[in-house]
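SEVERITY: medium
COMPONENT: batch folding queue
REPORTER: lab tech (J.R.)

DESCRIPTION
The queue accepted two submissions in a row. Attaching both inputs and their returned structure tokens so the on-call engineer can compare them side by side.

ATTACHMENT 1
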Amino acid sequence: MALTIGSPSGFRYFAHMLMVSILIMALVNSVSNVLPDETELPRFITINLSGFILFSYSIYKGKSLTNPRKIWYNNSFISSGIALILYANTALSGAVHTYVLPIFYLVEIAIVIYLGKRLRLESDYLRFTEMTSFNNQVVPQGP
């Protein structure tokens, strides 16, 4: 049975993916809560960079995965990275009033766009390489 969201096995992996995502978010939040209350900017940077690193590395690593189970786990890291960035933006950016945040977000946007373009080009190049190697094979002719 395929590991799609509609199958029982796929839904089980989806639920597991959500649990891993929530536990990662709780871990990063508890680590950032260790910092003193007056230091909102380091808390924001800790949570935001954790999410950004999780997202970026999972996107990079995910292009080489082919096993459906490993893809589900990789998706949990991608979704937890997105949720951490969203949490840092909604919960902590109101407490952090500084001119650094727009610059911080511009750098993140530039890196995500770069990764997206790079990922797309590598996938197309690999697919093209596979197609050309298949076309160069000699098919034996029957008697």
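ATTACHMENT 2
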Amino acid sequence: MSNQPIAGRYLSKMRRWIHDSSTFLKNGFGSTLVVNRGSSYLPNDTKWVLEEAGSVEIDNSCESLFYKKLIPAGFTWPEASLCILSNAYLTGDQGQVFQADGSLLQICPSLRHLPLKKIRRPISLFAKKIPGTVFHLTGVDHENHGHFLFQHLPRLLAARENVLLKKEFRVLVAPGHVNWQLRYLQYFGIQKEQIVEGSNGTVKVEHLAYVPTLYGSSYLCNPQYYRQIHQAFCSAPIPEEASLKGEQHDIIFISRFDAPNRKLTNEAEVIKVCEEVWGKVHVLELSRTPLPEQIRICRSAKIVIGPQGQGLSVLFFMEKALLILLEYGHTLQPLGWCAAYRDVAILTGNKCVRLLSQSLPYSEGNWTYEIQKFQVDAQRLARLFPFKPTTP
């Protein structure tokens, strides 16, 4: 192992300790943190409206057909705005935003979950200085693929159409997440040299471009951004090395077997039933499959099946397919991540049905889908939504 990663981890721990100690002392000795909540604290020439608030109703006919009752779907989203802040400070991997005078700017609801005493205060002496215009692409749950694609990437897509970002700019991502987030960002024209890694300490940015989270009544925002994401992945040419890797698969199962928790513990039995009902199933382990190959496999699939979780973000790679989302619980929830995955699948031209396990999670969020029930559910789905196999 090289010394560079070891040195980097050591410096990261030191920065964290210095900032946490400084914040603890300031809180302990009564140093008041000035908090500005809302965009009214911004000068008029630093904020621009990108889009108005809106709403959408979704055709949830497949789920309604399966459950023999009307299941409405839809959501609202708020006004989207872009802020350009001069000499702004960011702290921590979520990028808490401080104005030049040291006041905390809380215009994004997603960054209000931490108690004020736990928010690291900037230390200008140790700040990593970044010149030019930089877009803030970190925030709460930045480390999760689902949150990144559904909630953070749309912020960038909304902002880059503004004339202020037509010129050269860079993108700041959370420390330690450059590699996997870059793999997605390259599909949207963002190259490696445009990526700036943040810090768990202090970053000072000459011009910070910042769009607060765009979601409203649901976890989702304006559908146009999900269609842009879907289009970028599905229209991209498949690299030669990926296209040579093999056959087309009609039925895909998205495995969570290697996840640390929230696993479908009887996944193997569920897959066996899928094969009995639909035929040969290709089990896709995302952690072992390069992104271009994930896209290739899912683009040609007719049916994609998987337990709830961030792995179902592959719906962005599907084209006119059926997503079968396995969900624990006793009732279909109108809000939540399972509803969000369903809605985006439909909005991007696919079909979706959520299947309820009628069971609840136990240790570490793991759960099971009772096999006899799944057999009944799968057979009913096969009758309602037949498909023509690619090969006999």
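NOTES FROM REPORTER
The chain has a mean pLDDT of 91.
No errors were logged for either attachment.
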